[in-house]
Amino acid sequence: MIKRSPFCWHRFCLIGVMASALSLGGFSVHASSSERHNVLDAQTSDPEVLGWMVGSPPPKDKIVRFEDGSYFDFPALRWSVSNFRQLMPTINVSRGLGAPVALPRTIQASIDAIRFMPIGATQPMTWQGSLAANYTDGVVIMHRGHIVYERYFGVLKANGQNAAMSVTKSVIGTLAAMLVAEGLLDANKQVSYYVPELAQSAFGNATLRQVLDMTTGLQYSEDYEDPSAEVWAHALAGNPMPKPKNYTGPRSYYEFLQTVQPQGEHGEGFGYKTVNTDVLGWVIARVTGRNVAELLSERIWNHLGAEQDAYMTTDSIGTPFAGGGLNTGLRDLARFGEMLRNDGYFNGQQIIPKIVVDDIRQGGDKHAFAKGGYPLLQGWSYRNMWWVTHNKNDAFMARGVHGQSVYIDPEAEMVIVRYASNPVASNSENDPVTIPAFEAVAKYLSQLSSD
User: What is the full DSSP assignment across 218-278?
Assistant: First the structure.
């Protein structure tokens, strides 16, 4: 088992890990480089095989708890990501009362045999091999509106829900971009215009555009190896469990955001920080009178013909975790991706204005992004909380720790949605396989269409 950071000696740090760890894109909370070689592989860490939380009650050594942080230890993590509603408070994202709309299926079993070369490798890998390499829990590939591939592993089933982690950011960014397109938000106005309570924080004089593209200058470290990093205070504030009697710090996401101090200049460079999305969630709630879970249901989930409700984890006062708390069914997230591939049109209606998708696809400031330090993502940019590849197919992507992905390739007319539970949080661990694998499937489907 991979142990938690030795700095997490206080139990409230332990149980606060998930509040921020769900959303990070650049750090590994649970595995050092030396530990990675000793981690169970996908087959031996399969949560169904290991029997987590099976029985009435389960055996003591198979119980996963929120209160002691064991739910985020690997390999128990592989069970937890598909069962967060059993572990912590959540708020529903209703699909509405209409009948679900089936997705047509044209299964292409030959996808399993697609071969590609992982970055830095000397031997090719197959698509099927990549699934185990990335600890995949579920994956759906859509091509021209049809499901052409669908697989589930471990405890995630077709009727289950899984943590989207930082894919949440892209969903919330899409909501905000919709409000900008509709004139309810002005991307050039400062955050304090919408939320005066943040006027004295680092966010006060940042523009909404700088928040959306994560070019804010903040004193906020997400280095989990540093016990004084601000990420720990953020996690503790968002932790829904009761605080110690002598605790005097912030007790909610809203309270914590007011304490963030400036560092550097806004607009200078890209800096991936979860608190930007929490601020965006506050702005959205203030302007619309609905929290992001309610607005997501009303504006998007109600219109997708979704099969299941989604849900979001919350802090102690019920604030949805905008930075990483969304949990969905796999096919429903595929519906969301397919809608964006079709310029916001899906299920017979224009759900998102086309101008929003156009704005995402054009990308953000490449020069600013390059300062973020992502050697495997050279030439990429970040716009409205989406990762934009600027590759020859103009693909764009939503990304979450441990391998969560929504990959949209307009040229190949393809959407890939993957849920995973890689023991290493950072996407830099799975990107060498993920990126070339996704591109290889896009190439294969493009050639299939032209035959």
Answer: EE----TT-TT-HHHHHHHHH--SPPPTT--S--SHHHHHTTPEE-S-TTSS----THHHH
Taking the model in full, what pTM does it have? Answer: 0.93
383 to each of 215, 272, 287, 365, how far by Cα in Å? 10, 12, 21, 8
CB burial string 2-30: b at 16+ within 10 A, e below: bebbeebeeebbbbbbbbbbbbbbebbbb
118, part of any domain:
yes
Q: Are 194 and 185 in contact (CB under 8 A)?
A: yes
**Residue 38 reports pLDDT greater than 80:** no
Q: CA–CA separation, 135 vs 90, rounded Å?
A: 26
Q: Is residue 25 domain-resident?
A: yes
Considering the domain architecture, whether residues 76 and 138 belong to the same structural domain is answered as: no
| Residue 19 sits in the same domain as residue 115 | no
In tens, the pLDDT along 133-177 reads: 999 999 999 999 999 999 999 999 999 999 999 999 999 999 999
Per the CB < 8 A criterion, the answer to whether 331 and 307 are in contact is: yes
Q: Which helix (H) or strand (E) holds 322?
A: none
Asked if residue 79 belongs to a domain, the reply is yes
Please check whether residues 376 and 429 belong to one and the same domain. Answer: yes
Domain range for 228 is 179-237+247-276
pLDDT confidence tier of residue 67, bands split at 50, 70 and 90:
confident
Provide the number of structural domains found in the chain. Answer: 3
166 labelled catalytic: yes
The rounded distance, in Å, linking the Cα atoms of 185 and 356 is 13
- Say whether pLDDT at 179 is over 60: yes
Which of 99-113, 180-194, 227-241 shows the lowest mean pLDDT across its residues?
227-241
Angle CA 353–145–326, to nearest 5: 60
Q: What is the pLDDT of residues 361-371, one digit of tens each?
A: 999 999 999 99
Looking at the fold, whether 374 and 446 belong to one and the same domain comes out as yes
pLDDT of 271 above 70: yes
451: confidence class by pLDDT, cuts 50, 70, 90: low
pLDDT higher than threshold 90 for residue 225 = no
Question: Looking at the structure, do residues 158 and 186 belong to the same domain, yes or no?
Answer: no
Out of 37, 58, 88, pick the residue that ends a domain.
88
Calculate the average pLDDT of the chain. 91
Mean pLDDT for 310-316 is: 97
Catalytic residue among 23, 28, 82, 166: 166
Q: Is residue 307 part of a domain?
A: no
Tokens 């002691």, residue located: 68
| CATH number of domain containing 438 | 3.40.710.10
* Residues in Cβ contact with 197 at an 8 Å cutoff, skipping those fewer than 6 apart: 254, 258
306, two tokens? 């979704």
* CATH number for position 199: 1.20.58.710
